[in-house]
């Protein structure tokens, strides 16, 4: 009789453990999801950036070299950070286009 109770208890503990593992895994993915980008971007490309700049920016900002010279930051990383903060509200909402435009501007 006690052996039967032990087996039943063992079965319930295994089910509980498996359920906790599944729930823990789901929770891990749910918490990590907001940290991931909405969609992965390719490596920034200067050529695509020049085309995107010409299409979206050049009509108002003809001289990109003058613009990048005025962006605050001691190095490319700081300038990239400043542009990443500014461009989403300035007609560069797409992550890939923005990365490409920044790569182009920094190449000047």
UniProtKB/TrEMBL annotation:
Keyword set, alphabetical order: Heme, Iron, Metal-binding
Classification via InterPro entries: Cyt_c-like_dom, Cyt_c-like_dom_sf
Gene Ontology molecular functions: electron transfer activity; heme binding; metal ion binding
Domain Cytochrome c: 44-108
Keyword Flavoprotein: no
Gene3D superfamilies: Cytochrome c-like domain
Protein name: Monoheme cytochrome c
């Amino acid at each position: 009789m006690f052996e039967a109770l032990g087996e039943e208890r063992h079965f319930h503990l295994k089910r509980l453990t498996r359920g906790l593992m599944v729930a823990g895994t789901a929770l891990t993915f749910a918490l990590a999801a907001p940290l991931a980008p909405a969609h992965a971007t390719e490596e920034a490309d200067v050529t695509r950036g020049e085309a995107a700049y010409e299409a979206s920016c050049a009509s108002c900002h003809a001289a990109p070299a003058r613009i990048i010279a005025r962006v605050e930051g001691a190095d490319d990383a700081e300038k990239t950070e400043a542009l990443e903060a500014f461009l989403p509200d300035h007609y560069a909402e797409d992550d890939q286009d923005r990365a490409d435009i920044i790569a182009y501007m920094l190449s000047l």
